[in-house]
Amino acid sequence: MQGKTRFTPTEAREIRELLARKTRTSRDEQKRLRQRIRKLGFYISDFQEDSGAFSTADFDQLVSRKILIIISENDL
Question: Cα 59–62–64 angle (5° rounding)?
Fold first, then answer.
């Protein structure tokens, strides 16, 4: 695993926004968005089992299964 599994609400919100934008953009822009997602500490490749697109629903499923944890900003 390259990335982290604990995110603040602000980080999680930004990851969700970037994932949503990624599905609607060109291939070059997708690369830039994935780079921004990795800078937040989230690596899609840590959780993606197939070559399909990783979506906000996939991210939210990881949160609901407690694979990813959203921590309070105060817990930093």
Answer: 110
Strand blocks (E) in the chain? 6-7, 69-70
SS3 59: helix
| pLDDT tens-digit map of 20-44 | 999 899 999 999 999 999 999 999 9
Considering the domain boundaries, does residue 1 fall inside one? no
Instruction: Please check whether residue 12 lies inside any domain of the structure.
Output: yes
Q: Give which of 10, 6, 12, 11 is closest to 60, Cα–Cα.
A: 12
Task: Indicate whether 44 belongs to any domain.
Answer: yes
Tokens 């979506």 belong to residue: 55
Contact (CB, 8 A) for 59 and 16: yes
Indicate whether 53 belongs to any domain.
yes
pTM of this prediction exceeds 0.70: yes
